[in-house]
């Protein structure tokens, strides 16, 4: 009887382990749109882009397969220059990009984008189908302009905390946190905090183990999952 029980237990462990692996063709990849514009902060967008592009799992075929399809998006078709020295050719415009599941909105010189109705409308309209918005630094102002920070908690780069409070008085602005997670809306502090926010999104949508593997691959040992604020987990 003991032999039968042990055999049955081993079979169950093998079955569960095999069941947790997926064939590469069965994996549904989420689309991640990285919104770019003239004067965008380099690490604001490249940090989260690296996180999502590097996130992968091992399949039944013993291959590492990416869980996210990452692409860049801009308004119009012009080349983008980041911080005055990195020129980027975006993959798509906001008019023709694949429907995103996740939209990353980095900070930087946001003034022109904030004054462009097509950009604000794209963000606002995308909220009907997008699973997660992730803003970095002053990218939070674009979310606010689209009406997506109303009655939400949010954060931004430390130098813009007061301006965010004054601009969006119906938003509770938090400081001294790496990210704030409202569910659909995740805002982060400045520059490198976008990496923390993206890893948090991976943890939330996939698993903590996968997020930790991604952080290890990036040698980003600064990530501490509890340095953010998750609404509802107070």
From TrEMBL:
Domain DJ-1/PfpI, first and last residues per copy: 31-203
GO biological process terms held by the UniProt record: regulation of DNA-templated transcription
Xref: CDD domains: GATase1_PfpI_2
InterPro entries linked to this entry: Class_I_gatase-like, DJ-1/PfpI, INH-QAR
A Pfam family that the UniProt record links to this protein: DJ-1_PfpI
Protein name: DJ-1/PfpI family protein
Lineage: Bacteria, Pseudomonadati, Bacteroidota, Flavobacteriia, Flavobacteriales
